[in-house]
Automatic annotation (TrEMBL):
Keywords: Glycoprotein, Hydrolase, Membrane, Signal, Transmembrane, Transmembrane helix. It comes from the Eukaryota. Its EC number is 3.1.3.2. This is Purple acid phosphatase. Residues 389-454 form the Purple acid phosphatase C-terminal domain. PROSITE patterns: PROKAR_LIPOPROTEIN. Residues 168-372 form the Calcineurin-like phosphoesterase domain. SUPFAM superfamilies: Metallo-dependent phosphatases, Purple acid phosphatase, N-terminal domain. It comes from Chloropicon primus. InterPro entries: Calcineurin-like_PHP, Metallo-depent_PP-like, MPP_PAP, PAPs-like, PAPs_C, Purple_acid_Pase-like_N. Residues 1-20 form the signal peptide. It holds the Pfam family Metallophos_C. It catalyses: a phosphate monoester + H2O = an alcohol + phosphate.
């Protein structure tokens, strides 16, 4: 029996070894709650008055499902500015006139008033879907302009009549900033060029923090990515940047990003002479309806944002848009020591979670906390509900200048973490959401690991709304997929589990053989003893 016990203890040790191996990032200050700030990467720049800071987004709507917005900046005021563009396979280039805006921003950090470059936004509506578009922003209209840039317009979204079973990938990231870590994250996203339809940023884009020259540096630093992959942003706390003179907030963000200029469904939050800056808005891409909301605007029932959200969710037809994803900045679930107790998290969750669960939202992405955490599907903080729950992901790990947060709260009753926390790690990185069809999606989180992107967390997400619609035995599904979560906080990976089972079987086999051998030896001894007694007699 002794040998069997030794084998069992050894097997447990093996399993333990296989399960650990925590990665410690290079720039993490051990034990630190307040990691050192990381240097901003300054891109050398000499202004020749030309086009700079080119970035693109998509603006799909009913009459123009392939619409694109091309934004750029220049110190030159140009009434004729716009974008030449041509679809792949079409000989003749077309021209879209840009609208121009500019802003002043008075802050202590700007040491007075900063005046932005002229900011241009061109809406291209006459464009097909599922096609490559070559384009070039210009300040003057002239013949024979070389179209040196290109973007890919995704296939027709299911909301506009496209296939609800189509697949699509989105790069998801938050709290980007402009440090060496930010550059690494954006390099990794660039590696997915041609694979992802868009990049979705959960706020805190530049960490300009009232120094507007940093917005310009950010725009130039990431132009090689942002002029190819459409960006959908939302306002984080680092976008607030209140003007000291007139008290207006979000001004730089509002002028630089025009996410959905047509605002078909009444999105809003900031309207500057006809320019909708879209503090909250929604869009249809692939088979998903994606909603961006603000953690820093009024949210209570009856507020403009709440009423818009309620109306937007109520208007959805899940046979047309099977997936519904909501993105914001301040996470509703967070087991990191940092950013606990912020009302932008708990108060908005209290107000909106019933609404989102009622409409059976599939996923929510957030930023703000400079680490990665995935939360089991839930509609409250004590149960896992795979049927009606929302899968929450905090992905505020893009590379900000404030450093990583790697101190975590323990869970209930001696657990390592809260019962709702599925995976957490304090590393920089980004994620890719792969919507495979109407019922299944695959989520993958990569961390930046010394230059390589390393996959650390993966999971499948089942869209129960679409899955249920495809099944006959709907009631059975409903019964069997709602669980009280006292079981799902234990994660056992397959390999150590397999080793454990194999070693246990081996231990049992050894024990059985040992017992059999002892029984045989006993029988031999007894027969020998019997023979000896018989011989004596
Ligand atoms: Fe933040």
């Amino acid at each position: 029996m002794k040998s069997a016990a030794v084998v069992f203890v050894f097997s447990l040790a093996l399993v333990g070894l296989a399960s650990c191996g925590q990665y410690v990032p290079n720039n993490w200050q051990s034990g630190g709650q307040d990691p050192a700030e990381v240097e901003v990467v300054e891109l050398p720049f000499e202004d020749d008055g030309g086009v700079q800071q080119v970035h693109i987004t998509l603006a799909p709507h009913t009459s123009a499902p392939g619409a694109v917005v091309v934004s750029f900046a220049s110190s030159t005021k140009a009434e004729e500015a716009g974008v030449y563009y041509r679809e792949e396979g079409v000989g003749q280039a077309s021209f879209a006139q840009a609208r121009m805006t500019q802003y002043n921003h008075t802050t202590f950090q700007n040491d007075g008033t900063y005046t932005s470059p002229y900011l241009y936004h061109a809406l291209i509506e006459e464009v097909s879907t599922n096609i490559t578009v070559f384009y070039e922003p210009v300040l003057t209209q002239e013949q024979g302009v070389t179209l040196s840039r290109s973007l890919r317009v995704p296939p027709l979204a299911s909301a506009f009549g496209g296939d609800p079973e189509q697949e699509m990938k989105l790069a998801m990231v938050g709290d980007i900033g402009q440090t060496s870590n930010s550059v690494q994250t954006m390099d990794h996203i660039t590696q997915e060029l041609g694979d992802v339809a868009a990049m979705v940023v959960m706020g805190d884009l530049s960490y300009a923090d009232n120094i507007d020259a940093r917005w310009d540096n950010w725009g130039r630093l990431f132009e090689p990515v942002l002029d190819k992959i459409p960006l959908f942003g939302l306002p984080g706390n680092h976008e607030i940047e209140t003007d000291q003179e007139d008290g207006v907030s979000f001004r730089p963000y509002a002028h630089r990003f025009q996410n959905m200029p047509t605002c078909d469904n009444g999105c809003g939050g900031f309207d500057n002479k006809g320019w909708k800056a879209n503090m909250w808005y929604s869009y249809n891409i692939g088979s998903a309806h994606i909603i961006h909301v603000s953690s820093y605007h009024k949210y209570e029932a009856g507020s403009p944002q709440y009423m818009w959200l309620d109306r937007d969710l109520s208007s959805l037809d899940r046979t047309k848009t099977p997936w519904v994803i909501v993105n914001l900045h301040a996470p509703w679930y967070n087991s990191n020591v940092a950013h606990q107790g912020e009302f932008q998290s708990y108060a908005i969750r209290r107000e909106w979670q019933p609404l989102l669960c009622q409409h059976r939202v599939n996923m929510m992405f957030a930023g703000h906390v400079h680490s990665y955490e995935r939360v089991f599907p839930t509609c409250d903080n004590s149960t896992v509900d795979y049927h009606r729950g929302i899968t929450y992901v905090n992905i505020g790990d893009g590379g900000n200048r404030e450093g990583l947060y790697n101190n975590w709260l323990p869970g209930e009753n001696g657990r390592a973490g809260p019962i709702w926390s599925a995976f957490r790690e304090g590393s920089y990185g980004h994620g890719v959401l792969h919507i495979m069809n109407s019922t299944h999606a695959f989520w993958k989180w990569h961390r930046n690991n010394d230059g390589d992107k390393v996959t650390r967390d993966t999971t499948y997400i089942v869209n129960e709304v679409a899955w249920e619609a495809k099944r006959d035995d709907k009631e059975t599904v409903k019964e069997s997929t709602t669980f009280v979560n006292n079981f799902f906080d234990v994660q056992i990976s397959f390999i150590p589990f397999f080793i454990l089972v194999a070693l246990l079987c081996y231990s049992i086999a050894i024990t059985v053989l040992y017992k059999k051998r002892n029984a045989a030896a006993k029988r031999d001894y007894e027969s020998l003893t019997e023979m000896s007694v018989t011989n004596k007699l």
